[in-house]
């Protein structure tokens, strides 16, 4: 049965271990993709296991729409096999005695409910060339595609993905990401996606719940939450950036580019062909990939040029760099420049200038600016 548009997964759960305690109270919209984000050891996978019903002796309550999964005070607990969830692990966990088709048919035969069909899943994940291949002959990326297919054929009401790209190298991650993007719109199954990689969260998640030390540190729309996180708050590697939303205008297939609308101006990025015109996307731009100019430049290879106003200037007291925040429309864009350039350009708050974006790709790393920099 389809979920109501405003249905939520309501969690108020607590689970204690010898050296760690999880205490989470949050509502997860059962629509689109919600990311669970945070540093290693923050409790992301533990919370996902609690949602799945894999963890015992959990205190509190969990409700999936109108179904009670957990009420410890009343002694109620719905086991994992009755929760109608699909779970994808880091290591795929395929049946190695079966070929790819056998793995998919196993899930297909066991679950005859409403949901995607065999042919539809095979087409969506480009699995046709792999159907007769043994699991041992699959690459890491191919194994995860098969695992996703098997999970889809279990016809889940909720998909739980536990860092499915963590074991893959960069090339294999880039192979899988477009499939994950397309699944969110093609099948419409609400998904909770665990990752400590901000590029995956930015690219896939509509909303994000940030965990720190087993508790919710922040939650909300992806761009707003990630852009507001202070430096060092979730234990990531450094790299100041701006996270913002833009709207898909068109795809330029021959150039492998996508044109976006950003604050009323065109912004060109590497192809986002899985996104439809009119769709909102979240972007992350590193401060080191933003250059500044006092006048509108000409004759440059950088095509993304935006007029803005200096909002803030912060110099490192013991370093060579300064962080300049430029207001472009409603977005506070951060640029990292040398202190030498800062002095030569005589940048001050209120000055009009132009920001040049060297790259505007989905993130590989991100940090938001700290007020003390």
TrEMBL record:
<keyword id="KW-0472">Membrane</keyword>
<keyword id="KW-0500">Molybdenum</keyword>
<dbReference type="GO" id="GO:0140359">
    <property type="term" value="F:ABC-type transporter activity"/>
</dbReference>
<keyword id="KW-0813">Transport</keyword>
<dbReference type="Pfam" id="PF03459">
    <property type="entry name" value="TOBE"/>
</dbReference>
<dbReference type="GO" id="GO:0016020">
    <property type="term" value="C:membrane"/>
</dbReference>
<keyword id="KW-1278">Translocase</keyword>
<dbReference type="InterPro" id="IPR011868">
    <property type="entry name" value="ModC_ABC_ATP-bd"/>
</dbReference>
<dbReference type="InterPro" id="IPR050334">
    <property type="entry name" value="Molybdenum_import_ModC"/>
</dbReference>
<protein>
    <submittedName>
        <fullName>Molybdenum ABC transporter ATP-binding protein</fullName>
    </submittedName>
</protein>
<dbReference type="InterPro" id="IPR003593">
    <property type="entry name" value="AAA+_ATPase"/>
</dbReference>
<dbReference type="InterPro" id="IPR003439">
    <property type="entry name" value="ABC_transporter-like_ATP-bd"/>
</dbReference>
<keyword id="KW-1003">Cell membrane</keyword>
<dbReference type="GO" id="GO:0015098">
    <property type="term" value="F:molybdate ion transmembrane transporter activity"/>
</dbReference>
<keyword id="KW-0997">Cell inner membrane</keyword>
<dbReference type="InterPro" id="IPR008995">
    <property type="entry name" value="Mo/tungstate-bd_C_term_dom"/>
</dbReference>
<dbReference type="GO" id="GO:0016887">
    <property type="term" value="F:ATP hydrolysis activity"/>
</dbReference>
<dbReference type="InterPro" id="IPR004606">
    <property type="entry name" value="Mop_domain"/>
</dbReference>
<keyword id="KW-0547">Nucleotide-binding</keyword>
<feature type="domain" description="ABC transporter">
    <location>
        <begin position="3"/>
        <end position="238"/>
    </location>
</feature>
<dbReference type="Pfam" id="PF00005">
    <property type="entry name" value="ABC_tran"/>
</dbReference>
<keyword id="KW-0067">ATP-binding</keyword>
<dbReference type="InterPro" id="IPR017871">
    <property type="entry name" value="ABC_transporter-like_CS"/>
</dbReference>
<feature type="domain" description="Mop">
    <location>
        <begin position="299"/>
        <end position="366"/>
    </location>
</feature>
<dbReference type="GO" id="GO:0005524">
    <property type="term" value="F:ATP binding"/>
</dbReference>
<dbReference type="InterPro" id="IPR005116">
    <property type="entry name" value="Transp-assoc_OB_typ1"/>
</dbReference>
<dbReference type="InterPro" id="IPR027417">
    <property type="entry name" value="P-loop_NTPase"/>
</dbReference>
């Amino acid at each position: 049965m389809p979920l109501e548009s405003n249905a939520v997964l309501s969690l108020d759960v607590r689970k204690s271990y010898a050296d760690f305690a999880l205490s989470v109270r949050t509502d997860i919209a059962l629509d689109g993709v919600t990311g669970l984000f945070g540093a290693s050891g923050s409790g992301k996978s533990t919370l996902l296991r609690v949602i799945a019903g894999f963890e015992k002796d959990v205190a509190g309550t969990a409700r999936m729409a109108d179904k009670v999964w957990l009420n410890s005070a009343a002694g109620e607990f719905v086991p994992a096999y009755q929760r109608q969830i699909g779970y994808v692990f880091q290591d795929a966990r395929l049946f190695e005695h079966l070929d790819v088709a056998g793995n998919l048919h196993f899930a297909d035969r066991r679950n005859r409910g409403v949901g995607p069909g065999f042919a539809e899943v095979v087409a969506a994940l480009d699995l046709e060339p792999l159907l007769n291949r043994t699991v041992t002959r699959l690459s890491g990326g191919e194994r995860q595609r098969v695992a996703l297919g098997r999970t889809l054929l279990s016809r889940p009401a909720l998909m739980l993905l536990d860092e499915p790209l963590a074991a893959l190298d960069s090339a294999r991650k880039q192979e899988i990401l477009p499939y994950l993007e397309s699944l969110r719109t093609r099948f419409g199954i609400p998904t909770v996606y665990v990752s400590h990689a901000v590029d995956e969260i930015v690219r896939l998640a509509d909303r994000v719940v940030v965990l720190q030390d087993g508790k919710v540190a922040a939650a909300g729309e992806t761009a707003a939450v990630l852009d507001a996180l202070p430096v060092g708050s979730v234990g990531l590697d450094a790299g100041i950036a701006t996270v913002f939303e833009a709207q898909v205008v068109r795809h330029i297939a021959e150039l492998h580019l996508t044109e976006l609308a950003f604050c009323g101006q065109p912004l060109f990025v590497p192809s986002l062909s899985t996104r439809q015109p009119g769709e909102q996307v979240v972007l992350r731009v590193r401060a080191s990939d933003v250059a500044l100019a006092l006048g509108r430049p000409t004759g440059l290879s950088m095509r993304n040029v935006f007029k803005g106003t200096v909002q803030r200037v912060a110099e490192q007291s013991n370093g060579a760099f300064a962080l300049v925040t430029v207001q472009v429309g409603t977005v506070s864009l951060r640029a990292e420049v040398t202190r030498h350039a800062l002095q030569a350009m005589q940048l001050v708050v209120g000055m009009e200038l132009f920001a040049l974006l060297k790259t505007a790709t989905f993130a590989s790393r991100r940090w938001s600016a700290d007020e003390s920099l």
